[in-house]
Amino acid sequence: MRIRMNIHNIILLFSTFLGVSQMCGITTHIETGYRAKEYIDLSINGLDFKEIIEKHDDAFQAGCPFPDAMYPGLCYDGMFHSIAEDTHWTPIMNATINFLRNLPQPWTNDTEKFLSFILGIFQHQIADVNWHSLGITQGFIRTMSKVNYHNQYGPAHSDADFGGDVVNVYNLDTSYIDPTDQWYVPDKDMERVYEEFYGYKKVNSTVISDCAELLFLGRLGEHIGAIEVLYPEYAEASPFLVDEMSSFFLGGLDDMAAWVTQTWKRAQHMMEQGTDKCEITPEKDNPIHMRCPDIDGKLSEMSTVKDTQKFRDVPILESKFIKHFVQKYRNDIHREESERGTYFHLSPNLQKLVKKANKEKAQVKTRSSKQKDASVIKPNFFLTTNNLYSKLGSNIVKGDLNNDGFQDLVITAPEFSLKGNYQVGRVYILYGSRSGIVHKTIDIDNIANVTLTGSQENGRFGKGVAIVDLNADGKNDLAVSAPSVGLGAIQYQGEVYIFLGTDSAISEIPDITLKCNEKYCNMGEYLAAGDVDGDDFDDLIIGSPRAPAGGEQRGFVSAVLSNKALAKEKLDSFDIRNSLWSVRGNQDYEWFGEGVKVEKHGESTLLLIPSPTWRICSQENCEFDPEDIESVGRLTIFECPLSSAGPRQIINGTQKFNMLGRDIALGNPYINQSNSFLAVASPLSTIEGKIDDLPETFIQAGKIDIYNASDMEVHTTISGDREISRHGHTLLMEDINNDEKSDLIISSHLRSDDYDFIEGVDEGRIYIFLGGSSFPIGNFTQDCDDYIDSPCLKENADFILSGGEDKSRFSKAITVVGRGQKQLIVGMPTSNQGGRQSGKIAVFNFEI
């Protein structure tokens, strides 16, 4: 039975809120600020920044979106638009810091609130730069326009600003943003700041508070409950927005938060030493180009780009819904004036509306939980962490690192942070045994045999990982990438570290560092291992899909071949350009190398290189054109040993946003077949099906095609059964029941049983189809005459697994370990069990 919330009345009730919030990304800015404040180690006058923010959260939340307050037409018909624009740039930062430095000591409570408020403003200034691609190339919206909007920045910008908030409210645990909490705006302080900045009174405190009130109401609208129903609309328009919102290297949430910490360091330096200690001028007013020589070094170390777009083109909103809202609800905001600011509170009437909406959501969640499929298997154990935002489980690989004959686990947390050292990343190694690895729920820091922590702030050590015998001495080595090394200089070149193996362990400091000297190289986002030159030693394959490679984000794949001389030379550094084999993408923004794999089955060894955002060009020169078919995806297949010859096979997607090749796996699940078979995912394919015997189109449901690797004929197709479930995001062919046939493991990491995108979001599923005589042939998930719903995926799977937690992106990474009893190890990198997006590992025991 399809569960439906009584959304209609709520949308009518709060449509005006949604309209207000379109002026900016209110939730996006607050979320970025919260991520940034968690690990800062800064203080002024003995006051810790984090403690100040948490003590005066009402001011910080108000400050995060504040620079947008005077943009919209509702704010005095847009007559203060230019002040809003000025508030986004470093001269205003300079003015607020000078104002703060001149306030009397010791600081009062109002001054502490002013500090918390302007830290929110500084967050907004730098986050907007990376988000809107201001003064830089390839920021978030700019890339979004290239990948999903035919290089049209305007439509991408329109969808990103509000759509980003829709995606964040839907995908993230934003319970810390209580829409009933008060805000504090230091309107009288800001009036004085603006007067000192302009040299005359250009705006007064009444205007400031009136316009800030719109943001306060916008926050309420975004968190009242109706915003979730818009998620499918934005997900359908831009898969990039959904998939890259947190992780994109330049302008994703994690990147924006990293830059906020950098900006706060410079702001703190100016608060202590004076604004003349940093480079802030009207000609250099972009905060990403601000440098403080005492803490940053020479200015020449930073790459700069002249600002070609300054204004954000925020639309002047004219909507009957908004005007109706102003007339009906503005009197329901209660203000409380203080000596230097204004507090905003919801009236009892609005508080009742919030309670009503929350009650409606709770009822839906209760009904949804009662209809959970009892046949879904839940984990036996979990590995957890309490390191907020670390994203434990982003990557998982297996191999014997201590030479005892048992497979060990390598689990990464690339966003792991320490106080004052943000996003350094961490890698955990757990040694295996005959019975597996994990036998109880425990904090991973208390069970890991080896812990490796990155040395570069914001490097994201652990983004890519592979086990490889690179020095060909018979002992496995560990390769770990940190693709964001160079963030602070806007270079993002990245590094890959090699930890050489010994008789009983691996080195705990890197023996070899691989470097890329190309801007935006992001080297090593994906690492793989396999023997690609035929010498019986695994080689290191480095996928860098965001690298320029002769254009913009074309991507490249390089092979660093195993070499016994490495053990003797003990190289300290190696330029990736010296690798003996390399191949590049040939189309801007195709992301060649995203998810690169080396797969071996029997006598076959294939190097598989996906380009998930490759497009079918309508122009001969492949310039962007509205007639292009975007993100159909491409899989390039090389046969090993590698040579100078071209690829053996290329498979192209045909459907818009197909993203063919997003993951691949090689094996043989069929009875009476000796060939290898290649499973190829198209996780955003549109699937035709039915619900309760009524026709239904499932946008971005996904499918997997299984090809005979010899003749590339399709033998089996397995389709997803839910809209935006990303069926096939992760694929694995492993023998989990010891019958010497490959079993197919498929993830749908965004899937939920909820059709309406209200609750149970991103819970995810894993479907297991056992190899052998029962393995399906043909398009069997569409052959559902005996069922009222199709595709009939769950009716045909041998096992269905769930992590049991919403918004956890269950099944982002998967591996199988063990000999007799097999353990399926599954990453849940956005789990909130140990803290916001701390991540965790789900462990399933299989005794078949």
Automatic annotation (TrEMBL):
A family per Pfam: FG-GAP
Entry keyword annotation includes Cytoplasm: no
So which domain of life are we looking at?
Answer: Eukaryota
Enzyme kind, highest EC tier: hydrolase
> Coiled-coil segments, which residues?
none
- Report the EC code(s) recorded for this entry: 3.1.4.50
Which Gene Ontology CC terms are recorded?
extracellular matrix; extracellular space
PROSITE patterns, per database record: FG_GAP (PS51470)
Segment forming the signal sequence: 1-23
What SUPFAM superfamilies has UniProt attached to this entry?
Integrin alpha N-terminal domain
- For the Phospholipase C/D domain, which residue ranges apply? 28-215
InterPro entries on file: FG-GAP, Gprt_PLipase_D, Int_alpha_beta-p, Integrin_alpha_N, PLPC/GPLD1
The compartments listed are:
Secreted
Keywords (alphabetical) are: Glycoprotein, Hydrolase, Repeat, Secreted, Signal
Q: Which segments carry the FG-GAP repeats?
A: 378-439, 447-508, 509-569
MF terms per GO, please?
A: glycosylphosphatidylinositol phospholipase D activity
Catalysed reaction equations from the record: a 6-(alpha-D-glucosaminyl)-1-(1,2-diacyl-sn-glycero-3-phospho)-1D-myo-inositol + H2O = 6-(alpha-D-glucosaminyl)-1D-myo-inositol + a 1,2-diacyl-sn-glycero-3-phosphate + H(+)
As for family, the record states: Belongs to the GPLD1 family.
Q: By what name is this protein known?
A: Phosphatidylinositol-glycan-specific phospholipase D
